[in-house]
Write a structure and sequence with these properties.
15 helices; three-stranded antiparallel β-sheet; about 65% helix; mainly alpha; about 325 residues; disordered N terminus; about 5% strand; globular
Length: about 325
């Protein structure tokens, strides 16, 4: 099924929003896969997910789409010797994540101003004294996804059921522009179910969707700046001392191992800083409210004590009358 251009997908989504709402209301809840279930599934068995990702295979059109290029370019890279040939099974060629990593490296070098001829010379110079497998290992360490989440698909009626009236045409357009969801025909592709699960839980807690999207936009800008600076540190202190172009063959295994080690360390550092910032913000904005509640707690009579007090009052009144 062909994918719509971005602006067409947004207009198409708005056009079928009302129909989706009607269908969502008619869907039996027992047949709906909740976002929480999908989010939990995406977080389980990380090692299995990573192993499956390493064994992933692509046909030529799938590989071109995953790398953000065209089949024509892919063929051209093969003709020039920049891309290893696929594994042949009958008349079909199958590519792996190593090929995807190579294509991403070629794209990155092209974006930095290298020509196809320059890239070929760099690869040839490196190959003359190094192991191709080690180079592909470095490519994979640099360009592989930094998350083990697999995209999930849901229907638009299901999305409407989870967010209700909060998912207006304008908010839907914003969600799409932020890449939180992607329309794929009549289905909705969710790159990160954890993100969507968090949004739904906050929405159920009373946080408006549009205000959450404002936070996501601000967060993304800050995170992208920090990520860029962290990568520049790695380039400055690890790669630049080795000179321009591809690193010496003897250093490639060490560099690949270093990149794999840095991945979880970066996540740990970011998580620690977010936890620190959230703790400080909670104390600043909620601390006074908590202190007020604690200070006035003794002034509030427990609900269970009121009936007892009323009974005692009536008994005392009855006793006085008898006397």
């Amino acid at each position: 099924m062909p994918r719509w251009p971005h602006e067409h997908r947004v207009r198409g989504a708005v056009g079928i929003l009302r129909l989706a709402a009607v269908r969502a209301a008619a869907l039996p809840s027992r047949r709906m896969k909740s976002l929480s279930t999908l989010a939990k599934r995406s977080g389980r068995d990380r090692s299995k997910a990573l192993a499956a990702e390493a064994r992933r295979e692509f046909r030529v059109d799938e590989l071109a789409r995953a790398a953000g290029t065209t089949v024509r370019n892919l063929r051209a890279y093969q003709d020039r010797g920049l891309l290893p040939p696929p594994e042949r099974r009958g008349r079909t060629g199958y590519y792996t994540n190593a090929h995807l990593a190579r294509l991403r490296l070629i794209g990155a070098l092209l974006n930095r101003g290298y020509s196809i001829a320059n890239i070929g010379e760099l690869l040839e110079a490196w190959h003359s004294g190094g192991d191709l497998g080690a180079l592909l290992g470095l490519e994979s360490a640099i360009t592989s996804p930094w998350s083990d989440e697999e995209p999930q698909y849901v229907s638009l009626p299901q999305l409407m059921k989870d967010f209700g009236r909060q998912l207006t045409p304008s908010s839907l357009a914003r969600v799409i522009s932020l890449g939180i969801i992607e329309l794929d025909g009549t289905r909705v592709r969710i790159p990160s179910m954890r993100m969507l699960f968090a949004a739904r839980e906050l929405n159920e807690a009373g946080i408006p969707l549009d205000e959450m999207l404002n936070i996501v936009r601000m967060l993304r800008g800050n995170v992208e700046r920090v990520a860029n600076e962290m990568v520049l540190l790695i380039v400055k202190h690890v790669f630049d001392p080795l000179g321009d172009g591809l690193p010496p063959a003897k250093d490639v295994p060490r560099l690949a191992e270093l990149i794999w080690r840095l991945r979880p360390l970066v996540n740990m550092a970011v998580s620690a800083e977010v936890a620190r910032a959230m703790g400080g913000a909670a104390n600043r904005h909620l601390g006074d409210r908590l202190s007020y509640v604690l200070d006035h707690l003794h002034e509030q009579e427990p609900p269970s004590a009121k009936p007892v007090a009323a009974v005692k009052k009536r008994v005392a009144k009855s006793t006085r009358r008898r006397a």
